[in-house]
Amino acid sequence: MSNISSKQKIIIANWKMKLGFRESLSLARKIRQRFKNFSGNVVICPDFVSLYSCGQEIKKSNLKLGAQDAFWQDSGAYTGEISPQTLKTAGCRYVILGHSERRKYLKEDYNLINLKLKKVLAVSALTPVICIGENQKERSQGLVKSVLTRQLQEGLKGVALKADQKVIIAYEPLWAIGSGKVIKNKDLEEISGIIKQFLKKSRSGRGRDKFSIIYGGSVDSKNIKGISQIEGIDGCLVGGASLKPAEFYKICRGMLT
Ligand code: PGA
Asked: Which residue lies with its CA nearest to atom 1 of ligand 1?
């Protein structure tokens, strides 16, 4: 069983580029107020500009801060990029890597995501969340297993984890993101099996325990209960529904209580 299994399930809110600075701050405040008496593991990921201020807003709460991306170097002439160490200094504990929107619009591939993953792991107390997932065409062609296995092979290549480190694998089928279509429970069970099988082949027993699997793609308060009951799924990455405090609270309760 995963060491961040039932006891430490997680919900990660991915705000993407949907909010301006003031809106982000206001949402962070509303979420903090709504989650006042909630002790589950909940992470909010605002955009880079809003990160620090949102982090200050939630500082005295149980909520945690995450970033939507990071660069693969510590510092240097990399215009527009942000290092994992800077993210940590700004208060981040989690970093999403290789989100499908970055793969699509910025042409990120798993060799690059692999570099980012290693650099995030080089900064203590930062947990990477690596995204994988097939598109509709790959699913209809029966390629899900081979696509996910290749993404994992490339993304996790040469990644060695220290005793206190973990990696979260976010399975996000592209066709489910922002579409209102959610994966069927039996298909998600199968995916969890594919990922576990990959980890079994590539990692020793204790090494496998450092990975957890979460799901993302049109998660809402109606489908969360079903997802939460799937063996081997340790949480969710939530986009659109995480922008509505009441809805997001219901999702977190559904998964984490
Ligand atoms: P969604 O986004 O919940 O709006 O489908 C999920 C994601 O892209 O992380």
From this structure: 239
